Amino acid sequence: MPGLTIGDTIPNLELETTHGKIKIHDYVGDSFCIIFSHPADFTPVCTSELGGMAKCMPEFQKSGVKLLGVSCDDVESHKEWIKDVEAFTPGSHVRYPIAADPKREAIKQLNMVDPYEKDAEGKPLPSRALHIVGPDKKVKASMLYPASTGRSMEEVLRVVQSLQLAAKYMVATPVNWKPGDPVVISPGVSDQEAKRMFPQGFEVKDLPSKKGYLRFTQIES
Ligand code: BEZ
């Protein structure tokens, strides 16, 4: 995603949303925030994704994560569309704001333009782009999918929980990690420091190299 990558500050755009005008940095505040775009209102995959996000909202809230949707259509269209979204995904309530971007200025600055998808007038449409932004307003992770592939909300939640763990402890999460699974201690932490930082102990995997770099520990949530 050239132009906006890990470590970059998210542009502090003023956006028209279903919850009124917001400035991105004020909205993020002291939280993690997921900013995710959709190609267009009243389209099948997008309708399922918006409902999926809404259904996961209690989980995101438990982790202190805010959500902000982006779709180019106007706010009135978004408000009508939300009725379909909630009807399609029973139990979902779209309580997060969805920004409008009829001029396609925000999606350009947020690096969310799909190079192939166009609307009926030939105007660019957003890809399924998603930035996880930290309380410091910097991009911590991004995902970029085409219009044809709906995202896994479980994966989005898993990534945000991994980022939050890594921000709090000097750890990282290995392949297919799920919340509650053991984590690995970051390579920059010496064994001596690890003994102090992880009083619960850690297991060093015995590998052919004998380098002792794969160290698992358990973090209680
Ligand atoms: C969809 O949400 O289903 C969709 C939107 C734009 C292009 C293709 C699919």
Automatic annotation (TrEMBL):
Residues 4-165 form the Thioredoxin domain. Keywords: Antioxidant, Nucleus, Oxidoreductase, Peroxidase, Redox-active center. GO terms for molecular function: thioredoxin-dependent peroxiredoxin activity. GO terms for cellular component: cytosol; mitochondrion; nucleus. InterPro entries: AhpC/TSA (IPR000866), Peroxiredoxin_AhpC-typ (IPR024706), Peroxiredoxin_C (IPR019479), PRX_1cys (IPR045020), Thioredoxin_domain (IPR013766). One of its GO terms (biological process) is cell redox homeostasis. Its EC number is 1.11.1.24. It is found in: Nucleus. It catalyses: a hydroperoxide + [thioredoxin]-dithiol = an alcohol + [thioredoxin]-disulfide + H2O. PANTHER family: MCG48959-RELATED (PTHR43503), PEROXIREDOXIN-6 (PTHR43503:SF4). Belongs to the peroxiredoxin family. Prx6 subfamily. This is Peroxiredoxin. It comes from Zingiber officinale (Ginger). The lineage of its organism: Eukaryota, Viridiplantae, Streptophyta, Embryophyta, Tracheophyta.
